[in-house]
Every structure is written in C-alpha cells, then in structure tokens.
C-alpha cells in the first residue's frame, strides 16, 4: 500500500494519522514522474492532487476523507467511525465543516501573505468567516479529549492537521490563539497535541509545513 504526498499537506497527514490509528504505518511516497502533475501520477490520481493511495491490490483512490474511510473499513484495528448512527453522522459532519467552511477560508490568507500587496478587506472577511466556522465546530464537538466519543475517530484525524496548518498561516496575521473563547476546541486541541498517534504526526506536519512556508517561491 502506498500513500502519495508530502507531510507538509494536512490532507495527506490526515490519511497517515488514520492509518496509524488503525495500527498501520503508512509512509509518505513521492509522486512518480517527478510530481503530482506528471503523467505517471495522473494515471494514479487524475485530479492531480495530494493525496493518492494505491492499495495492496494495485487499485487507486483519491480524496483524503474517502481514503480514510477506506482504510477504516479494510485495515484491522480500532474503528474510526462510531457504531451509533447519530455519532457516526456527527463525525462526518465535523469532517465536512472543516473541509467546506474552515479550510476554505484559509485561501484568502494565503493570497495576502505579502503585507505590501495585502487586501485588508479580503483578510477581514476571511477572518470573520473562519471564526464563524470554528463556532460551528465547537457546537458539534463532544467536549472531551476526543472530537466525538471516548476514542480517536475520523474527525480527530481530519481536524487536527487542518488546524495545525491554519494556525501556522493565521499567526502571520497576528492570530496566535485561534481557539480563544472556545473551551471545547481548546481542551480537544491540548489532548490531541499529547496523543500518542496525533501528537508525533502533527509535530512532523507542523515542521514540514513551516519549511514549505519559508521556502522561496519562483
């Protein structure tokens, strides 16, 4: 089984965390052909994005949340989706909220990293939308050490690296505590930072993403 992508990507790291939670070490593999737009990689993932997965039968999958659910269903280990239908739906809801709303608002920050070219109105609107999305996640979060229930779920795998990425970007705009005034997210974040699975992989992602941010752009 191969996971294609870089630890600098939160979408790749969420798959690595899900695999590790199942007891599977899934190392990062470089995209064949020299990059994600190469013909060789496009044959694996025609979307030309990270991550891509090749399973033990040589079949390919794209999209991180889909890959995570596939691993949950095919790899032995603790279930990442709860058995209760409502809790299972809540885990999926948290994953959708982070992907469709929270991470969407990071784009304007990326576009305005250069202070000399910054569109402050765009940044202010993105900040308002981002913080609103956090309140929605706070509402559906379990309130304990885990996003839902009393063990690691797919929601933890998805949310944790996303917030690492977001926090690194937001810090450039003076936002050093994105969870201020959000007690459930604060408690959860502290627990995930210390967790035996999420903590080390999250640290690796943080270092890789910061290196990516500091790398010169063409």
Report on this structure.
The chain is mostly helical. The chain is built from 9 helices and 4 strands; from the N terminus they run E-H-E-H-E-E-H-H-H-H-H-H-H. It has helices spanning 10-21, 39-44, 64-74, 85-102, 106-111, 120-140, 154-171, 183-194, 198-214; strands spanning 2-4, 28-29, 52-54, 60-62. It has a 4-stranded mixed beta sheet, with helices on one face. The protein is globular, with a radius of gyration of 17 Å. It starts with a strand and ends with a helix.
Strand order of the largest sheet: 2-1-3-4
What is the number of E strands?
Answer: 4
pLDDT averaged residue by residue: 96
Give the topology string: H per helix, E per strand. Answer: EHEHEEHHHHHHH
Low-confidence stretches: none
End-to-end gap = 33 Å
How many helices? 9
| Fraction of residues in β-strands | 5-15%
General form? globular
Q: Tell me about the largest β-sheet.
A: 4 strands, mixed
> Helices and strands: which structural class?
mainly alpha
Helix percent reads: 55-70%
- The radius of gyration over CA amounts to 17 Å
Map the helices and strands.
Elements: E1 2-4, H1 10-21, E2 28-29, H2 39-44, E3 52-54, E4 60-62, H3 64-74, H4 85-102, H5 106-111, H6 120-140, H7 154-171, H8 183-194, H9 198-214
Parallel strand pairs: 1-2
Antiparallel strand pairs: 1-3, 3-4
Q: Can you give keywords for this protein?
A:
218 residues, globular
What is this entry, summarized?
With 218 residues, the chain is mostly helical. It has helices at 10-21, 39-44, 64-74, 85-102, 106-111, 120-140, 154-171, 183-194, 198-214; strands spanning 2-4, 28-29, 52-54, 60-62.
């Amino acid at each position: 089984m191969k996971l294609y992508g870089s630890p600098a990507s939160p979408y790749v790291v969420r798959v690595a965390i899900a695999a590790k939670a199942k007891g599977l070490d899934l190392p990062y593999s470089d995209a064949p052909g020299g990059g994600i737009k190469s013909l060789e990689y496009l044959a694996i993932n025609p979307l030309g994005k990270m991550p891509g997965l090749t399973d033990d039968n040589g079949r390919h999958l794209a999209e991180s949340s889909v890959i995570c659910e596939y691993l949950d269903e095919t790899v032995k280990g603790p279930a990442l989706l709860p058995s209760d239908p409502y809790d299972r739906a809540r885990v999926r809801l948290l994953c959708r909220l982070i992907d469709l709303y929270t991470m969407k608002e990071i784009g304007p920050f990326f576009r305005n990293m250069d202070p000399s070219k910054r569109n402050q109105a765009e940044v202010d609107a993105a900040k308002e939308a981002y913080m609103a999305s956090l309140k929605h996640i706070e509402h559906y979060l379990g309130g304990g050490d885990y996003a839902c229930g009393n063990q690691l779920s797919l929601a933890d795998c998805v949310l944790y690296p996303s917030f690492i990425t977001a926090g690194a970007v937001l810090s450039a705009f003076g936002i050093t505590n994105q969870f201020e005034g959000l007690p459930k997210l604060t408690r959860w974040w502290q627990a995930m930072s210390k967790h035996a699975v999420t903590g080390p992989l999250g640290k690796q992602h943080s270092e890789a993403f910061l290196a990516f941010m500091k790398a010169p752009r063409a």
